[in-house]
Amino acid sequence: MGGGQSFDPSALPSPEEIDGPPTPGTFKQLFALADSQADRYGHGWDSLMAATTPQRDSARTARATMRSAFQDHDRDAVQQQAKVLERLGKDLRKSNDAFDKSLGFLTDAQRKQYDDWKKEQKKAREDEQRQHFRGGGDGPPPSS
User: Fold this and answer.
1) Crossing angle for the helix pair 35-71 and 24-31, nearest 10 degrees?
2) CB atoms < 10 A from the CB of 127, how many?
3) Where are the alpha helices (DSSP H) in the chain?
4) Under 8 Å between Cβ of 18 and 96
């Protein structure tokens, strides 16, 4: 792709933002939820995922199309898909953030553990992106 990109890769949704929060089983294991907490998390997660499935599916499709366009050096298609992904990412971030705010049933220790886990996930993704760019990888960073 010649001439560089005219979109901000950091505005694109991460795989975690597209996939949504951890599944109820994973969340229960990671943060040692009591059964009542796991039930509340599961109901909220089910509602979130049901409400956002179309956006998540569209984001996955746009991300795959964008990767293909990168490989084909089709700058216009990359930029078009980046715009779609940015819009979808913004909507998904709002939904995911609202879901996170609904987790008031977590103890303070569980909340801190969850917040720390999310920071670790973000740092690992950013490190992976930095390595990709330093290595001169062709195409978008792995998490775009």
Assistant:
1) 120
2) 10
3) 15-19, 24-31, 35-71, 75-101, 108-134
4) no
Can you give the pTM of this predicted structure? 0.80
Q: Which residue has the tokens 């979109």?
A: 7
pLDDT tens track for 85-104: 999 999 999 999 999 999 99
Cβ atoms within 10 Å of 17's Cβ, excluding its own: 20
**Whole-angstrom distance, CA of residue 23 vs CA of residue 8:** 29
Q: Where along the chain do its domains lie?
A: 13-105
Is there a contact between 73 and 84 (Cβ–Cβ < 8 Å)? no
DSSP state of 11: G
Identify which of 91, 107, 93, 85 has the alpha carbon closest to the alpha carbon of residue 21: 93
